[in-house]
């Protein structure tokens, strides 16, 4: 192994890896867009103890949080094509299952995974909003939907924001596992570039720096948002 | 072609996988041991008065929190031998477990430093003052009053970090460690990549049960240790 780093390769690969950022970001954003409302609704089912849905979301959260993401990825990656193949066969759709873009699998895995995290986040956040808030909203004549949109959700978001930030950072980090589904995101692109010349150290340093930048930006963004949302926060009763 | 999905593979895979939990446990155990020590050092640095060491410790935690485990794992796997060779040490033949333990020690240390710091800060300063006022020495006050209380506060977070570590540990297969995950991949390769789904389902059942057990264990521990805790009820 040569001593010292290959700086030229380091810089070239940095831009190759950077070209994987959009894919990682698309997955992160879409997964969040799916998981936020879903997580909120399922959290409500648990708080209101709805018969079947509440048990379902409990088992679901327990499973997702109890197994490694990489195993979840492999399960989805191996099961969805089987399901699709049977469906295609049944309805005579002429389409090869293996032509499906891996981004779809990634979206399924990461939305399901983030939903589970967010159920727990919202559950604890909704619990901090006192019942009196909803009753007060009803008493001034708001409907349930209005009460939730105007009163409950803003307060829940303020409390839950730091945890949502954590979930987002974890999600971004987890997209690095997309390489297992041959998803052309940051990690895979740099790995492929390194395969040719065995410059693995440089490649992983590039990936490391990119994730560091992205996550710092995301954390900074959430801090800003937290500051802006703070006006909804109720001061503790004096 | 034969059946796509055969549930018997799930039940057959579990007994073959379970012996390999030993590797998972050893690697996780060592990482927890060293990681907790590292976390303690970092927490002391964060709580200390020295601005420079504070910044170093905070910077370390931020950087580690932003790094995906897989990236850190490979960085250590390729980076440490390359650095060591400059000092004339050849680490290329080291077992994968060595690098896995380093990686997860670094990561667990970052997690633990936050757990320890927040637990320590949650203890009211009055506790220390009260201890000193009844004549305990500085060391006694810490050992008998502060640490036992901080320990109870830290327990649930420690349990969570442990679960996190165990799950992230599944990635160790990427550098060739044969733990449960590694063995599952070997079985699949031995089957010429067929019935991968069943084996992974078996694997996920093992992990699931294990997480539930660890979670319950920590809940029990918390109950036992929080006996002496009174402040929640009285306030």
UniProtKB/TrEMBL annotation, chain B:
Xref: PROSITE patterns: ABC_TM1
Keyword Cell membrane part of the UniProt annotation: yes
Record membrane topology: Multi-pass membrane protein
Segments forming domain ABC transmembrane type-1: 21-218
Major subcellular location class: membrane
A Pfam family the protein falls into: BPD_transp_1
Matching SUPFAM superfamilies: MetI-like
Source organism, top-level taxon: Bacteria
This protein's record includes keyword Transport: yes
Subcellular localization: Cell membrane
Alphabetical keyword list: Cell membrane, Membrane, Transmembrane, Transmembrane helix, Transport
PANTHER family, alphabetized: L-CYSTINE TRANSPORT SYSTEM PERMEASE PROTEIN TCYL, MEMBRANE COMPONENT OF AMINO ACID ABC TRANSPORTER
Family per record: Belongs to the binding-protein-dependent transport system permease family.
Protein name: Amino acid ABC transporter permease
Origin species: Oceanobacillus caeni
Lineage: Bacteria, Bacillati, Bacillota, Bacilli, Bacillales
């Amino acid at each position: 192994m040569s001593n010292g780093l290959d700086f030229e390769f380091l810089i070239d690969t940095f831009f190759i890896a950077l070209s994987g950022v959009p894919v990682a970001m698309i997955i992160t954003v879409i997964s969040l867009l799916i998981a936020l409302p879903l997580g909120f609704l399922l959290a409500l089912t648990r708080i209101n103890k709805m018969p079947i849905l509440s048990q379902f979301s409990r088992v679901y959260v327990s499973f997702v949080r109890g197994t490694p993401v990489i195993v979840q990825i492999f399960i989805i990656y191996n099961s969805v094509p089987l399901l699709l193949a049977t469906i295609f066969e049944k309805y005579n759709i002429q389409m090869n299952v293996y032509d499906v873009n891996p981004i779809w699998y990634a979206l399924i895995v990461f939305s399901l995974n983030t939903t589970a995290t967010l159920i727990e986040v919202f559950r604890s956040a909704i619990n901090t909003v006192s019942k009196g808030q909803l009753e007060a909203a009803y008493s001034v004549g708001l409907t349930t939907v209005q009460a939730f949109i105007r009163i409950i959700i803003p307060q829940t978001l303020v409390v839950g924001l730091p945890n949502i930030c954590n979930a987002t950072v974890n999600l971004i980090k987890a997209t690095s596992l997309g390489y297992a589904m041959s998803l052309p995101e940051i990690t895979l692109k740099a790995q492929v570039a390194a395969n040719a010349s065995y410059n693995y150290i440089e490649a992983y340093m590039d990936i490391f720096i990119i994730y560091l930048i992205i996550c710092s930006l995301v954390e900074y963004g959430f801090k800003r948002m937290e500051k802006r949302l703070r006006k909804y926060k109720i001061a503790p009763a004096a | 072609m034969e059946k796509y999905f055969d549930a018997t593979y799930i039940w057959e895979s579990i007994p073959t996988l379970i012996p390999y939990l030993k590797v998972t446990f050893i690697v996780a155990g060592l990482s927890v041991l060293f990681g907790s020590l590292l976390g303690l050092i970092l927490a002391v640095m964060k709580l200390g008065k020295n601005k420079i060491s504070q910044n170093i410790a905070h910077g370390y935690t931020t950087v580690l929190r932003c790094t995906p485990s897989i990236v850190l794992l490979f960085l250590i796997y390729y980076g440490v031998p390359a650095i060591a060779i400059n000092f004339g040490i050849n680490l290329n033949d080291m077992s994968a477990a060595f690098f896995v333990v380093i990686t997860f020690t670094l990561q667990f240390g970052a997690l633990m430093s936050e757990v320890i710091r927040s637990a320590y800060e949650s203890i009211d300063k009055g506790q220390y003052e009260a201890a000193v006022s009844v004549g305990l020495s500085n060391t006694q006050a810490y050992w008998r009053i502060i640490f036992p209380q901080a320990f109870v506060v830290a327990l649930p977070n420690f349990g969570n970090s442990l679960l996190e570590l165990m799950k992230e540990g599944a990635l160790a297969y990427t550098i060739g460690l044969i733990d449960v995950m590694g063995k599952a991949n070997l079985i699949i390769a031995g089957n010429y990549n067929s019935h991968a789904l069943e084996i992974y389902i078996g694997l996920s059942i093992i992990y699931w049960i294990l997480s539930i057990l660890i979670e319950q264990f920590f809940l029990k521990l918390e109950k036992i240790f929080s006996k002496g805790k009174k402040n929640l009820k009285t306030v």
